[in-house]
Write a structure and sequence with these properties.
The complex is a heterodimer of chains A (469) and B (257). Chain A contains 11 helices and 13 strands. Chain A is of the alpha/beta class and 469 residues long. Chain A has 3 domains: 106 residues; 119 residues, no CATH class; 129 residues, 60s Ribosomal Protein L30, Chain: A, CATH 3.30.1330.60. Chain B starts with a helix and ends in a 6-residue tail after the last helix. The longest helix of chain B has 40 residues. The chains are: A alpha/beta (469), B mainly alpha (257).
Chain lengths: 469, 257
């Protein structure tokens, strides 16, 4: 055999072997068999088709392979996947790195994806157990979604039902409230009427007293009585002094109480409060109408309001009496607690009511306001209404508690005629203003200015605003 | 009919015994190394151009065909990997085995048949040379040694042919092609299929040697032995492949994936 043949045979066999070995190395290199690596572990309840030899990617880069999958010893335990990762990935892996089983591409094989860890996580060493995330199966997602939709539907039904009930309840409450309001409105009208009547009575009494009629009148005009009263006031002052010293004693007692340890007592008191709360709860429970019981809180409330109305009526009487009492009159007057529609010309002109306030005045002539009506009576004209609206506009911008007076003026004819005409003009305009602009009736007064020396025919609107501080 | 069946069974038994004799004799000296080397040169080295050209063509054709199919799914990126897997797992070994049985099976059958009818084998025997060991065992050994090498050549030239076809159409770089080609190939896809061609080599060598060694009927018998060698070797390679693939799946479970 020629030497050349031998060489060619050698080349052929060696070349073939080298080529084959090259294939082995290429595959081995791709599976990263020839690089230093560390071994890690992760646990999964479901390995989702992962196999021994499946690729391991760290943050999407080829990094190793699955070495073994240990089947758990009992049903509740998890599969343990042991896998190899190239050592060069160790710096970015942490114990909080998360391993998850994913599909390579759309229809590819399963791979183990490991995320890089957090900056603060503990570094991994060989054999470390890292976090894992269970694979998501499409079927699971579909099942969960179906369940969620089912639950959502149930919730929506429930909510719908509850909202329906709530609306029914609200409608019922609204009905009750309306009935209640209607009743209360009637009651309040009565209260107002009573109040007016009382004020009228008190006015008469006060007038009488002022003129020195009756016992009280005499008392007011008698100096001796004044002296006695003065003494009484002194006595009251003495009593106040005693009260002050008593108050100091109370302070001392309180200080004394504070100085003692009363924590335990407070606890006991708290216990009592709890009991009381429990009782209060029972009471509240009795307020609610139970099933089949028609009489409930609303009816009780209605009764209470009835009682309150009576009490308010009485209180209004008392208050009115108090307002007119000489002892408190000044106080109420200073506070402007008169109903202005009841104020007399005398009180108005004395300036007590409007003291400390700045008047602003609008003059309106008869010809601008009134048309001639039947039987010589004056009727408010359309033009007059417009004039009034313009005149009242600045007032409407002020606080609704600002005092407003409509002064009626008339000249010519007898004194009685002047009084009646001026009174009628003032009241007509007042009535119109209160209705038209929804003003508070007890803040608007109508004053006939019959005995004031003036040639004016018509009305003057005056409001008194607080002086600017 | 019965005689035909018994004749076929007899022939099969004969071939089996012939194969056992080869195996047995291969472990016994003298080793006839020079003769084996000469046979490797004859049937291995001289087959290289055929195998390389065929591998190149097969790679190119498979690349073009897989492109047509994978394009429909927008998976052109899978062409190199698909081609490599197909070549390494089955196409490379099988095509090499068939080409080899065509070229070498016919050669061995004709050569040994001619030696038999021209009584050269008898002459060797008279010289006290073990003609079976010298002529048959060396050839079968050479076949076993050469086929994995030729298969590896076929695989790599196939990948190269696939690259040429790919780069002409898509202009893909060699680095990317190479990277993708090997992306799915695992050891079980590469080593067992390549090494199974040793069995192909044994089958081809044994059949061709048996038919040539037992040639009767003069010159016509030589031609018949040559033809039969090709036919039987090819069909046996294909049939044995079924069993071999199953055996690989059994021994290397990862190869199925």
């Amino acid at each position: 055999m020629a030497a050349r043949t031998k060489i060619l045979v050698g080349v052929f066999v060696l070349g073939g072997f080298v080529l084959f070995a090259a294939g082995l190395f290429i595959i081995g290199d791709r599976r990263l068999l020839f690089s230093d690596s560390i071994e890690l572990r992760a646990q999964f309840a479901n390995v989702g088709g992962l196999k021994v030899g499946s690729k391991v990617l760290v943050s999407g880069m080829d990094a190793g392979e699955v070495l073994a999958i240990h089947v758990p010893a009992r049903p509740g335990a998890k599969f343990e996947v042991r896998f190899r990762v190239l050592e060069k990935f160790q710096p970015i892996l942490r114990q909080d790195s998360v391993a998850s089983i994913q599909v390579e591409g759309l229809v590819g094989s399963k791979i183990l994806q490991v995320d890089a860890g957090s900056e603060t996580g503990a570094p991994v060493t060989s054999g470390a157990l890292i976090q894992s995330r269970e694979p998501v199966e499409i079927a699971d997602i579909v099942r969960d979604t179906a369940e969620t939709i089912g639950k959502a539907a149930a919730v929506v039904d429930d909510v719908e039902e509850r909202v329906g009930k709530a609306i029914d309840t609200l409608v019922g409450v609204g009905e009750e409230a309306r009935t209640l309001v209607v009743q209360v409105r009637g009651d309040s009208r009565e209260i107002l009427g009573t109040t007016k009547r009382v004020v009228g009575n008190v006015n008469e009494i006060v007038d009488g007293v002022r003129q020195g009629r009756g016992t009280v009148g005499k008392l007011l005009t008698d100096d001796e009585v004044y002296g006695k009263l003065r003494k009484t006031v002194d006595d009251v002052a003495a009593v106040a002094g005693n009260a002050r010293s008593a108050s100091a004693d109370v302070k001392e007692i309180v200080a004394d109480l504070k100085s003692r340890d009363i924590g335990g007592k407070v606890e006991a008191a708290a216990g009592n409060v709890q009991q009381a709360t429990a009782h209060a709860k029972d009471v509240i429970a009795t307020l609610k109408p139970s099933a089949g019981e028609e009489r409930g809180l609303i009816d009780d409330l209605r009764d209470t309001i009835m009682n309150t109305r009576e009490a308010t009526s009485d209180f209004a009487d008392d208050m009115e009496a108090l307002k007119r009492n000489w002892f408190f009159r000044g106080f109420f007057k200073r506070r402007g607690f008169y109903d202005l529609d009841e104020v007399s010309q005398e009180d108005y002109l004395s300036g007590k009511i409007t003291r400390g306030r700045e008047p602003e005045r609008q003059w309106l002539h008869r010809s601008e306001l009134f048309d001639e009506g039947p039987e010589g009576r004056e009727l408010l004209s359309e033009k007059g209404k417009k004039k009034l609206a313009i005149a009242i506009a600045p007032y409407l911008k002020l606080s609704p508690n600002t005092l407003l007076f409509v002064e009626g003026y008339a000249s010519g004819g007898s004194r009685e005629e002047q009084f009646l005409r001026s009174r009628e003009r003032a009241r007509m305009i007042r009535r119109y203003l209160v209705q038209r602009f929804d003003l508070k009736g007890n803040y608007v007064g109508a004053i006939p200015m019959d005995n004031v020396k003036s040639d004016w025919e018509g009305v003057s609107i005056v409001w008194f605003r607080d002086k600017k501080k | 009919m019965r005689s035909t069946l018994s004749s076929i069974a007899g022939q099969c038994g004969d071939v089996a015994l012939f194969g056992f004799r080869i195996l047995r004799d291969s472990f016994r000296p003298p080793w006839e190394g020079a003769e084996i080397a000469k046979q490797i040169f004859e049937i291995g080295w001289r087959s290289l151009p055929l195998i390389a050209a065929a591998g190149f063509a097969v790679g190119a054709v498979m690349s073009m065909h897989t492109r047509a199919s994978l394009e429909r799914f927008g998976a052109e990126a899978m062409i190199p990997a698909g081609l490599a897997i197909a070549l390494f797992k089955e196409t490379g070994p099988l095509v090499t085995g068939l080409l080899f049985s065509g070229r070498v099976g016919a050669g061995i059958g004709a050569e040994l048949g001619a030696m038999r009818v021209s009584e050269q084998i008898d002459a060797l025997e008279s010289l006290a040379v073990d003609s079976f060991k010298y002529l048959v065992v060396t050839r079968v050994m050479a076949c076993i040694a050469v086929l994995p090498i030729l298969t590896t050549v076929m695989n790599f030239t196939g990948i190269l042919g696939g690259y040429i076809a790919e780069t002409v159409i898509s202009g893909m770089s060699f680095a990317l092609y190479w990277e993708r080609a090997w992306s799915f190939v695992d050891f079980v896809d590469y080593v067992p299929p390549t090494l199974k061609t040793c069995i192909f080599g044994f089958i081809i060598g044994t059949i061709a040697s048996y038919l040539g060694y037992n040639t009767t009927g003069g010159t016509a018998g030589v031609g018949q032995a040559s033809t039969r060698s090709v036919v039987f070797a090819s069909i046996l390679v294909i049939l044995s492949n079924v069993v071999l693939v199953k055996a690989i799946f059994f021994l290397f479970p990862g190869a199925e994936g």
